[in-house]
Amino acid sequence: MFVGNLTETIKLGNKFAKGLNPKSIVLLQGPIGAGKTSFVQGIAEGLGISEDITSPTFALSHHYSSGIIPLIHIDLYRIEDSLMAKEFLSAEEEEANQNKAIMVIEWPELIQTTLNNFWKIEISYAKNFGRNYKIWDPKNSLTFE
């Protein structure tokens, strides 16, 4: 699926949010600047979250509860050790389950193998302009491009 600009990325995230349920897990992969946080801004908009959505690169996670479903936005970019990433994720996952929150995880490469039943979205730069999105459903049986 081709998305041309920031506004379209946010709209795609908003539309995508409509298919999420409490306790959904979304993995976002792509290079720096590809639009991962912008996509999360769209998800938050679709969930009716009123807070500003910013990258949790330094905080590692941001929690938002003002929408119809709570959102936990995680960024594992700065974690280099898989054990530390898994321990951090375990604590966040416990809170997500207690609050019936959606977890969106940027840079999930270190923890992907420990998760079950997740959406996976790969973002890449298009050749001349915009971004390409590949979306796999939780059962990894469908791909949307």
SSE topology:
Blueprint: E1 2-3, H1 6-17, E2 25-29, H2 36-46, E3 61-64, E4 71-75, H3 82-99, E5 102-106, E6 119-125, E7 131-136, E8 143-144
Parallel strand pairs: 2-5, 2-6, 4-5
Antiparallel strand pairs: 1-7, 3-4, 6-7, 7-8
Could you please describe the fold and organization of this structure?
By secondary structure, the protein is an alpha/beta fold. It has one domain: P-loop containing nucleotide triphosphate hydrolases (Rossmann fold, 3-Layer(aba) Sandwich), CATH 3.40.50.300. The protein has helices at about 5-15, 35-45, 80-100, and strands at about 1-5, 25-30, 60-65, 70-75, 100-105, 120-125, 130-135, 145. Strands 1, 2, 3, 4, 5, 6, 7 and 8 form an eight-stranded mixed β-sheet that branches. Helix 1 (about 5-15) packs across helix 2 (about 35-45). The longest helix has 18 residues, at about 80-100. It is globular. About 35% of the residues are buried.
